[in-house]
């Protein structure tokens, strides 16, 4: 019964671990996606706010009322009434610009000629960047701390130009409350972004803030007070974002030294970096809750698995073990225990399997008997014929897959030698005939034709030479591809020897015929010579010995 516990529980635990691992990755990815959404949203809101400040400021630079007051001021230099009119105009207009805390007008020399706060008139601001850049176009300064007063400043400036010749009349400077930038990164604004994005979920430790090019925080902190232009943020994400100049999403330690997941984005117009963070401890809480649930679930499943295992053991184990014993007996060749008796077979699905097994086993035994009888018949046939039968693969060496025992008498190599070493066939062929035999076999495979060749085989033990005739056919599959070659080898040694003796006898007869002919020719020549001599003798006699 206990064997079912690891079998069931281990796959469950492995599956749970894999699911938890993927779930953890998904949670982290989802966290980073949410942080990126926040940084993208804050960047868009900052850019919208900067455009709003520019539009508001440039709108006042085209105000006819302010323009007329400036012109009157220039026409009546030193006239307190004209100064009062311009200061009053600025004090009135600033009420329509709630983000602005002070509105100043600087002359072409950079001196304050009017202000919504009249106490600041007469100040020389000619060397400030917002005056110098404000002469050309609308300019938004970085948030900075004024050295003389220690006040945090954020200024927007733009030029007043004469409509006739476009000449510079003055420069309008609006001092913006830097706290208004923090409104964009406050939880209220982020909650509004969350309402637009259903996938966005904030936590109690999430925070969004902006860092300037000097790595100083320029918005409020959720955890610290009085941080604007005081809190240095030299974290990994700030360094990487400054270096790469693009969006980042990493885990690191924030300015508090707390491990966090964070995303960042550069506002290219200002060089500021928007950072959105959440403590890792909080970001992984969903994973921790799921892990706890899984552990509780697995703990609750163990008793259930044990009880189920006990039931299964009673229901299936004993019949299954009997099946195993019967199969083992069948493998070991014990027919007395291979069959399952009828009283051991229950009236259920497993019992039906047992009955089917008995029927199948009976059929198998009958089939095995038939196969064995056919094998014996084939074996007797093969072993009793004087020829050798073989099957070989259509490869370069003609690898033999079957070889009858007759070949052993000729070559001294057993069929097992052929199965073990593909080169055995070539080793058994007479060295003088190997090239011819192998070439003929390969040519038959290449041309896909049957073959009929003769070659000699030398017995490795007795060195006796046999002359063999090898006739083979190529066997194809259903697609026409050659799968093997089947052949029969006949011993033609006696025939060859008879042919050789017959040839030798014919050669001897031919030689005798040639000798006889030569002898007849010689006899004919001698006969002709005798006849000539007889003629000469007769002539001699007829002439009384004078003819010679």
Descriptive overview:
The protein has 548 residues and is α+β, with helices and mostly antiparallel strands. Among the domains are: 52-181, Beta-Lactamase; 288-379, no CATH class; 387-491, Beta-Lactamase. Helices cover 53% and strands 18% of the residues. It has 16 helices and 16 strands. The protein has helices at 4-61, 64-75, 80-93, 129-134, 179-185, 187-196, 236-244, 280-283, 285-332, 335-338, 349-384, 406-411, 415-420, 424-428, 434-447, 493-542, and strands spanning 100-106, 112-115, 139-140, 144-145, 152-153, 155-161, 168-176, 207-211, 248-253, 259-267, 272-279, 388-392, 400-403, 451-458, 465-476, 482-491. Strands 2-1-7-6-3 form a 5-stranded antiparallel sheet. Strands 13-12-16-15-14 form a 5-stranded antiparallel sheet, sandwiched between helices. Strand 15 and strand 16 form a beta hairpin. The longest helix has 58 residues, at 4-61.
């Amino acid at each position: 019964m206990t064997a079912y516990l690891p079998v069931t529980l281990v796959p469950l635990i492995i599956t749970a671990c894999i699911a938890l691992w993927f779930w953890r990755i998904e949670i982290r990815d989802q966290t980073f996606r949410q942080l990126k959404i926040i940084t993208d949203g804050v960047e868009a809101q900052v850019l919208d706010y900067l455009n709003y400040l520019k539009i508001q400021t440039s709108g006042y630079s085209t105000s006819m009322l302010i323009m007329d007051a400036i012109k009157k001021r220039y026409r009546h230099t030193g006239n307190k009434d004209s100064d009062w009119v311009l200061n009053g105009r600025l004090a009135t207009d600033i009420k329509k610009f709630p983000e602005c805390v002070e509105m100043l007008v600087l002359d072409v020399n950079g001196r304050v000629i009017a202000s919504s706060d009249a106490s600041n008139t007469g100040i020389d601001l000619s060397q400030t960047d917002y005056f110098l850049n404000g002469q050309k176009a609308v300019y938004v300064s970085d948030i900075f701390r004024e050295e003389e007063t220690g006040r945090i400043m954020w200024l927007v400036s733009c030029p007043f130009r004469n409509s006739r010749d476009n000449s510079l009349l003055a420069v309008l400077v609006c001092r913006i409350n830097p706290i208004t930038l923090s409104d964009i990164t406050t939880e209220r604004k982020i909650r509004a972004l969350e309402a637009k994005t259903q996938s966005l979920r904030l936590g109690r430790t999430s925070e969004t803030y902006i860092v300037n090019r000097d790595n100083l925080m320029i918005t409020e902190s959720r955890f610290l007070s009085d941080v604007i232009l005081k809190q240095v943020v030299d974290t990994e994400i700030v360094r990487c974002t400054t270096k790469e100049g693009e969006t980042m999403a990493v885990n690191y330690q924030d300015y508090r030294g707390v491990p966090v997941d964070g995303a960042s984005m550069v506002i290219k117009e200002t060089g500021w970096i928007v950072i959105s963070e959440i403590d890792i401890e909080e970001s992984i809480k969903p994973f921790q809750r799921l892990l706890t649930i899984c552990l509780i679930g697995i703990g609750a499943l163990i008793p259930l698995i044990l009880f189920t295992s006990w039931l299964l053991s009673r229901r299936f184990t004993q019949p299954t073990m009997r099946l195993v014993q019967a199969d083992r007996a069948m493998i070991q060749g014990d027919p007395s225990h291979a069959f399952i008796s009828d009283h051991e077979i229950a009236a259920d699905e497993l019992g039906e399997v047992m009955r089917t097994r008995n029927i199948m086993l009976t059929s198998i035994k009958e089939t095995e008997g038939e196969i064995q009888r056919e094998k014996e018949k084939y074996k007797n046939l093969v072993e009793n014929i004087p020829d050798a039968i073989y099957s070989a693969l259509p490869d370069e060496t003609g690898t033999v897959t079957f070889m009858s025992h007759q070949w052993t008498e000729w070559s001294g190599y057993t069929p097992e030698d052929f199965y073990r070493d593909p080169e055995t066939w070539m080793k058994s062929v007479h060295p003088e005939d190997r090239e011819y035999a192998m070439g003929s076999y390969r040519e038959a495979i290449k041309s896909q034709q049957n073959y009929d060749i003769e070659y000699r085989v030398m017995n490795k033990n007795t060195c006796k030479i046999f002359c063999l005739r090898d006739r083979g056919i190529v066997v194809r599959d259903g697609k026409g591809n050659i799968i093997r070659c089947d052949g029969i080898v006949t011993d033609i040694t006696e025939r060859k020897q008879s042919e050789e003796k017959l040839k030798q006898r014919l050669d001897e007869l031919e030689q005798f015929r040639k000798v006889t002919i030569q002898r007849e020719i010689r006899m004919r020549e001698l006969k002709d010579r005798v006849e000539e001599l007889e003629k000469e003798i007769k002539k001699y006699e007829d002439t009384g010995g004078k003819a010679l």
